[in-house]
Design a protein that fits this description.
- With about 300 residues, the protein is an alpha/beta fold.
- It folds into two domains: about 180 residues, Rossmann fold (3-Layer(aba) Sandwich), CATH 3.40.50.1980; about 120 residues, Rossmann fold (3-Layer(aba) Sandwich), CATH 3.40.50.1980.
- About 40% of the residues lie in helices and about 15% in strands.
- A hairpin with a 4-residue loop joins β5 and β6.
- α1 runs antiparallel to α10 and α8 packs across α9.
Length: about 300
């Protein structure tokens, strides 16, 4: 069995009999509303058909810039439980989430992860890197944490949630192993990952990549001429052959980097589109958390070989 087939098999395991959400919701089921598509997918996997799961943000939506609409606020208010990422990922929703926490169960995935594993950007200002899902080993701790919170909130479905969670954690471990095998095909000196914004440092730390983002950890920050020039020089100096655009971030700034490299005689190309802060379309492999991770790894390895 080759590695590509192996990874695909792991992705195919995402739907487990008895642990998948039916399309038609039943009113007697509790409702959990998640902020991002990534979290919503995780909740669906660990609750099976016992919970109605709603995602505030859909495919390709940038959580850094997202402002909750009145309809979103209503969905959050009507939910029995709200789950969000934390670490200021949903920066423009912070006030809404804070107010909700006074009247209902509001849980941050990041609260389940030991802070020693969280990247600190500015300790004085309590600024941390929120892209924790790209380190699967620490993300699984967050998954276990929200599973425990769900079981505590809804004890009548605790047994089913525990079973689905165990199955899902096994899938996370399997995909992690398969991704390690895929990355082993890439020479270590080629493991330089350049993206639109700084969302992949956890990925780089886990899989041994040097990571550079044109923008900072939040897409609220904009890149300037110096950022573009510095990136052009870095790419040429390190002989990087490919850079990667992101599904939830405009490509214009990174295209300027490519043009700058080409103007100086270095041929750099777009290695592919990565899924960073949001999943792909429903019904695709990239529309699931594990499928998204697998897709990114295959795209990166292919683009940098």
């Amino acid at each position: 069995m080759n590695l590509k087939t192996s990874v695909s098999i792991f992705t195919a395991l995402l739907v487990i009999p008895g642990c998948s959400s039916p399309e038609n919701r039943e009113s007697q089921k509790p409702t959990i509303t998640a902020t991002t598509s990534i979290i919503a997918d995780v909740v669906r996997n660990i609750t099976g058909d016992k919970v109605n799961v709603i995602s505030i943000m859909g495919a390709g939506v940038d959580p850094h810039l997202y402002k909750a609409s009145q309809g979103d606020v209503q969905l959050l208010q009507e939910a029995n439980m709200v789950i969000y990422n934390g670490l200021h990922l949903e920066g423009k929703m912070s006030e809404v989430l804070e107010k909700l926490s006074h009247g209902k169960t509001v849980v941050a995935v990041s609260d389940g992860i030991d802070k020693k594993f969280v990247r600190t950007i500015n300790s004085d200002a309590n600024v941390y890197d929120p892209h924790i899902w790209f380190d699967m080993k620490i993300w699984r701790e967050g998954v276990q944490y929200i599973s425990g919170e769900i079981q505590s909130k809804f004890p009548e479905i605790a047994t089913e949630v525990d079973s689905c969670t165990r199955n899902y954690l096994h899938q996370i471990d399997s995909v992690q192993t398969a991704c390690e095998q895929l990355i082993a095909e890439l020479d270590t000196q080629k493991r330089i990952l350049i993206t639109s914004h700084d969302a992949f440092e956890y990925f780089g730390r886990r899989f041994g990549f040097t990571v550079r983002g044109l923008q900072g950890i939040s897409t609220l920050s904009e890149s300037g001429l110096k950022d573009v020039t510095d990136m052009v020089n870095y790419i040429i100096t390190n002989k990087v052959k490919s850079v990667f655009v992101e599904n939830s971030v405009p490509q214009k700034a990174l295209r300027s980097v490519i043009d700058g490299c080409n103007a100086k005689g270095w041929d750099v190309k777009v290695g592919g589109e990565l899924f960073s802060d949001a999943l792909g379309a429903n019904g695709t492999a990239e529309g699931t958390y594990l499928g998204m991770v697998e897709f990114n790894v295959r795209t990166i390895v292919k683009g940098l070989k």
